[in-house]
Amino acid sequence: MSSETPSDEVRRKWLKPAIGENFILLNDVLSSSYSTALNLSSGGTFKILKQLDSYDDENFLLEHTTPTSTTTTKYLVKVHNGVESEDAKIIDYQNSIMTHLNLHPSITTTAPLLSDDGAPFSNHKLPVSSPQHSPAPLTVRLLTYIEGTPMAYKQVTPALLFSAGEYLANVDSSLDNFSHPASERFHAWDQKNTTSLREFVKYIQTPERQKLVSSVIDAFESTVLPDASNLRQGVLQSDFNDANIIIGASDKIAGVIDFGDSVKSWRVLDCTVAMAYAMLSSYGKTGHSLAASAAFLSGFNTKYPLTPTERMHVRTLVCCRLACSATLGAYSYSQDPTNKYLLLHAEPCWRTLELVWSQVDADHLASFYDLAMSPEANLDLLSVPDPTVPDHFQKLRTSTKRSFSDTKTITFVTGNKKKLEEVQKIMENTTATITNHKLDLPELQGDPLYVSEEKCKLAVAEIGGAVITEDTSLCFNALNGMPGPYIKWFLDKCGHDGLNKMLDGFSDRTAYAQTVVAYCSGPGSPIHLFDGRTNGKIVLPRGPLDFGWDPVFECSEGGASSAGLTYAEMDKSVKNTVSHRGKAFEQLKSFLETESS
Ligand SMILES: O=c1nc[nH]c2c1ncn2[C@H]1C[C@H](O)[C@@H](COP(=O)(O)OP(=O)(O)OP(=O)(O)O)O1
Ligand SMILES: [Mg+2]
């Protein structure tokens, strides 16, 4: 970028309004230009309540009171960036979009009030952030205010993102019947212009991240651009983020604001931009960024189905927006290095880009998004946590009716390494592949069957695919089955000796070990339980001490290789043939075989 012809992106920084707390200035502007709209001559009064967030403009909340009414009305005062202010066509463009959309029965947006000159805006010389350019001619608009809360201040749920997707789809359908000459313009945030990000890559702080962004740009150039003529065009809202979506009563979407970035571009971009922002919403940030984007996509696609070509590029285009946002954020920081907040703000965006572009397998993510657009899609299925392993989506695919793969992957959720070793051995050579998700499930109370079933419910919600959990009890017959599922605590607190001493007053030292395995093929599917038990007695510890109460449980079942030995004294492979766990998992194996045949 040469210094003689600074880009609009550069000038937008210089010409950002800088009124800030100086409400007196604004009062003058409004009194001189909007006295009719605010009926100041007949006793109307107004007050600027506060400044609202804005990226390149300045927005203020105004409260208006008329002498005849006890209620107040809120309005938004928008002071436009100097770049847009220079171009009356742009302001007219935004006003036309709002007027057009407000005619749609299920869309609400802000609408401009007329100034004393009869225009939907007024112009004033006002301070801007660059002292050399201040004051600059800026456009001011008085807009109606949509009652509600920006989604950014809400606890976002997949259901809310789904309805936001539907809402944007309605907006886009309506904008398919809208045209305006000013919509045809260059905008750095328009992902059609992703290659123009190249000049900003040098502002990115680390070489790794520079490489990351360059690789997204390269992919865009080699895969998306050649398809450009097959992508539908239309006027976009272009910035459907959680600050621009207003949530009203009972968590319904009350409206959309801000057409400052609106351009005519590829239709699919409105959806992919919003998907990128969904990833950064309060739901996305809880480790559900992919689920958040899928929920949005699913909602959008039900009302505005994407074409096969558009579908193919969803992942890349989402990453183009993340890359754009992160890169231009780095550029903003280079212009204002005292503003560490800019770096902080960009961090989730970088992390998400790293996840989506580098860590998650591209084909897997593509089929996840396909699933979001399929008739089988439902929010339970899509609400999976962000993966920590590349083949995460395999679990999801196997839990749907679609035949993505022949072998079933089941996640064994346990916090116990020794259990996992045994189970992997037991499940060797079956049609199911067992992966593990290490999670310390809560130690629930109650009957072993109940505990195991509840663990499974928690696990399936966490994994979103096929899961196994198990709960193991050690039951003393003299104590009517106690400690049972509480054995973990008894072992922790009392040790092997303590377990022995508990039986000292009793003649009966027999016990049985019990594992209840719970299996569920995915969210919404029933839970199947398998109960395995082995008899034995409690003895002083014999054998290695590496697994729980194995050294104090002397097995009384099987042949010479097991009966009379503690579990700890047995060969591991022998333990599996007689153990409580071995028996329970054998039942699961036959269940899975009949299920798949
Ligand atoms: O074959 C076994 N041989 C000896 N000890 C065993 C065995 N199987 C479980 N144990 C121990 C581990 C824990 O102290 C308690 C069961 O509690 P339990 O909640 O099922 O296990 P856990 O909390 O270690 O793992 P998880 O994350 O799957 O719940 O008995
Ligand atoms: Mg446990």
From TrEMBL:
One of its GO terms (cellular component) is cytoplasm. It comes from the Eukaryota. GO terms for molecular function: dITP diphosphatase activity; hydroxylysine kinase activity; ITP diphosphatase activity; metal ion binding; nucleotide binding; XTP diphosphatase activity. One of its GO terms (biological process) is deoxyribonucleoside triphosphate catabolic process. It is found in: Cytoplasm. Its EC number is 3.6.1.66. Pfam families: APH (PF01636), Ham1p_like (PF01725). Gene3D superfamilies: 3.90.1200.10, 3.90.950.10. Signal peptide: none annotated. ITP binds at residues 414-419, 455, 471-472, 547-550, 575, 580-581. Its main location: cytoplasm. Its cofactor is Mg(2+); Mn(2+). HAMAP family: HAM1_NTPase. PANTHER family: AMINOGLYCOSIDE PHOSPHOTRANSFERASE DOMAIN-CONTAINING PROTEIN-RELATED (PTHR21064), HYDROXYLYSINE KINASE (PTHR21064:SF1). Homodimer. Pyrophosphatase that hydrolyzes non-canonical purine nucleotides such as inosine triphosphate (ITP), deoxyinosine triphosphate (dITP) or xanthosine 5'-triphosphate (XTP) to their respective monophosphate derivatives. The enzyme does not distinguish between the deoxy- and ribose forms. Probably excludes non-canonical purines from RNA and DNA precursor pools, thus preventing their incorporation into RNA and DNA and avoiding chromosomal lesions. Catalyzes the GTP-dependent phosphorylation of 5-hydroxy-L-lysine. This is Inosine triphosphate pyrophosphatase.
